[in-house]
Each structure stands twice: as structure tokens, then as C-alpha cells.
Write a structure and sequence with these properties.
The complex is a heterodimer of chains A (168) and B (204). By secondary structure, chain A is an alpha/beta fold. Helix content of chain A is 32%, strand content 20%. The N and C termini of chain A lie far apart (101 Å). In chain B, 39% of the residues lie in helices and 16% in strands. Classes of the chains: A alpha/beta (168), B alpha/beta (204).
């Protein structure tokens, strides 16, 4: 009877794993590139209710503690404190407004008038979506608690002054 | 002088361990990741430091870019129910097959009238430029309003949860376009939104 030659040297059952590793990493790379791992981040925004009948919608603001920021063209903003027309607006770029907010808040808090410091954001037709997100983000970073978005009541005088500066 | 004996080791390394690591990584990625959906309207979102995750359920995403708006509601069951409700509203009969097809379509932007032909297309054809023109938002034929309304109804029916609305806008999109969409939502008394942004490191 024929016998299998099992005696003598035993070959070690070693397999070369290199191609398999190559294949594995190829698959890993493929999966990294085709999938989105993290869910996108989002910004929580609340806009004022538009229901005219709701009496609770009216919010009283202290003129000396209210800062209005108008968003304009070319990443420019115009801001003023208090009521429109009372003080001349300041024009600056969006990146500089951070300092002004801090400064205004410090002044408002030092004035001793009751109430929170309020920032009113008015995005005009000249601004883009990024400007709006940027300013809301800035307010979040600076922890301005009371912030309002108002894109309906942009006064003619505000428009006029912005046009004169070429940012609307 | 005695010769220094250099020990010769084999240059073959054992790849088994490396293979194990690769397999582990592969398994990890397959299990954690969700397949990226093809987007018919590519937008580059602005970045912010907010750390709030867009919910995976009970959420509708409005993609705004190039003056157009696209719509997506999360969840296959919700999508199917939304289409049924839209069909009832616009007096269009969608076959069960069309509803099934629609439930796997993520973001889309076609008027209701061409929805049937859109669903009949293959996945590749749908992504061709010019096919998806955006959802009409005119005051005379405000279909976006209907979509959001029916999606909210469907979410409430299927999941018993209120639906959130996310807005995914392009950085360069002009504000009036965004305002127009937001006004549509505010008419339905949806005053809370999520603006989808890229994560950005907080500068300090």
C-alpha cells in the first residue's frame, strides 16, 4: 500500500500575510473615503413669533442696553446703541465687531440700568448666509444671552445710512 | 583575533498581527459609519463653534443653494407617509411601488407634478444637472409649505415626536433667499431652526 510520506521534516504552516494586509488596508481606505463618520453640527436659532395677536410677543428693551447690529454687503456691519438715529452708526467689518460688543456690554453693565444687555441682529438684503451664521456664532461665544433676530423691521433711516456707506 | 559573529535574522516579519489590526479597523469603520448619500445640490456650509448634533430622526433638512431649495425628511416610514399625504393633497395617486422608491430617496428638489417621472428615473439619472430644479416656493404654489406641513404630520403619526427643521444653507447664499424660506416656516409657527454648520475650533 502506498503511504504518504509524513516522516522527516515538517513544513511549518506559514502563510505570507502581506497581500492580505494590503487588501485590508485598501478596504479600510475605501470605507474611510466613502462614508461620513460624524454627523454635521448645527446651530440652534429661535426667531420671534410673527403672530400679531399674541400679546406676549412684545418685548420691552432698554435703549441704553440695546445694541443693534445691521449686516451689510462685503462682510461689513453697522452698529449703534439705543434707538435708531439717536447715535450715529459705527461701520466696521464683521471680524472687528467682537471688540465692540464686549466694549458696549461693559459700558451697559456699568451704567446701572436694570435689565439684560440685548443684541438685535438685523440681516439686510446685502448680507449672505455666512454673515448671519458668523454673527450668531460670535454672540454665542461671547455668551450674550439675549439676542434677537429681526429681518422684517429694517428702518428706512437704517437703509439710508447703510447705502451712504455702500454696504447695502 | 576572533571573528565577530553577526547573528543573521530572517527578514520575513510575521504579518498576522498587522492583518488582525487592519481587520479590526475595517470592522470598526463598517459598523460606525453610515454611507454618504449622494447630494443633488452641493452646498458648502459656513462654520461655527456650536456643538449641537443634527438629529438623525424626527428631522427635516432644507438645503438652500443657488437660489433653489431641496427637501429631505429623515426616516423611511416617515417619507412613505409624507408622500401619501402629499398625494392626497395634490390628488395624485402614488402606487405602493412609487412610495417604496420615494422612501429611499434622501434629498430631492422637484415640483410635485413631475414627482412621478422623477421616481421612475434611475438613481444616476436623478443626479444629472437640470433634472432637479428645486421645490417651488412661490406664494401662489407654495409646495415647500405643503412638504414641511405633511412631513410634520407624518413624523407625528409615525414617531409620535415633533419634527425639527434644519436649514442647510450655502455660505454664499444671499440672505433674502434664506429669509424667504424661513418666512414659509414661520407661517406654520415653526420658529425654532437648526442651521447646519461645519465644526470649527473655538479660538481662545
Amino acid at each position: 500500500m502506498a503511504e504518504l510520506n509524513t516522516g522527516g521534516k515538517k513544513a511549518t504552516p506559514r502563510v505570507d500575510m502581506t497581500p492580505m494586509v494590503d487588501l485590508m488596508f485598501l478596504l479600510v481606505t475605501f470605507f474611510i473615503l466613502t462614508t461620513s463618520i460624524s454627523t454635521p453640527q448645527a446651530m440652534d436659532i429661535v426667531k420671534p413669533d410673527k403672530d400679531e395677536n399674541n400679546k406676549d410677543n412684545r418685548l420691552e428693551l432698554k435703549a441704553s442696553k440695546t445694541m443693534t447690529i445691521l449686516l451689510g454687503k462685503n462682510d461689513k456691519v453697522a452698529w449703534y446703541m439705543g434707538e435708531a438715529g439717536a447715535t450715529a452708526p459705527t461701520y466696521e467689518s464683521l471680524s472687528q465687531v467682537e471688540k465692540s460688543i464686549i466694549e458696549n456690554r461693559r459700558k451697559a453693565d456699568a451704567s446701572g440700568v436694570k435689565g439684560e444687555f440685548v443684541v438685535l441682529v438685523k440681516p439686510t438684503s446685502g448680507s449672505n448666509f455666512k454673515n448671519f451664521v458668523d454673527i450668531m456664532d460670535e454672540l454665542e461665544i461671547l455668551k450674550v444671552k439675549v439676542r434677537q433676530i429681526d429681518d422684517d423691521n429694517i428702518l428706512d433711516s437704517e437703509k439710508e445710512s447703510m447705502r451712504s456707506q455702500g454696504i447695502l | 583575533m576572533p571573528r565577530i559573529k553577526v547573528k543573521r535574522t530572517s527578514t520575513v516579519t510575521d504579518m498576522t498581527a498587522m492583518c488582525d489590526v487592519a481587520a479590526l479597523l475595517l470592522t470598526f469603520f463598517i459598523l460606525t459609519a453610515t454611507a454618504r448619500q449622494p447630494e443633488p445640490l452641493a452646498v458648502s456650509t459656513p462654520s461655527s463653534t456650536y456643538e449641537f448634533k443634527v438629529p438623525a430622526e424626527n428631522n427635516a433638512t432644507l438645503t438652500i443653494g443657488q437660489g433653489k431649495v431641496f427637501f429631505e425628511v429623515a426616516g423611511q416610514k416617515v417619507r412613505a407617509r409624507t408622500l401619501e399625504l402629499i398625494g392626497q393633497q395634490y390628488k395624485i395617486n402614488f402606487t405602493p411601488e412609487e412610495i417604496k422608491k420615494f422612501s429611499v430617496v434622501s434629498t430631492f428638489g422637484v415640483p410635485v407634478s413631475s414627482l412621478k417621472s422623477f421616481l421612475a428615473m434611475s438613481g444616476a439619472d436623478r443626479m444629472k444637472p437640470g433634472v432637479q430644479t428645486g421645490i417651488p416656493t412661490d406664494s401662489t404654489d407654495n409646495q415647500l409649505n405643503s412638504w414641511v406641513l405633511q412631513a410634520r404630520t407624518a413624523t407625528a403619526e409615525v414617531n409620535q415626536q415633533p419634527m425639527r427643521v434644519s436649514i442647510k444653507g450655502d455660505s454664499k447664499e444671499e440672505y433674502p433667499v434664506v429669509k424667504k424660506i424661513v418666512d414659509v416656516l414661520q407661517k406654520q409657527k415653526v420658529n425654532k431652526f437648526l442651521l447646519v454648520t461645519n465644526a470649527e475650533a473655538r479660538k481662545k
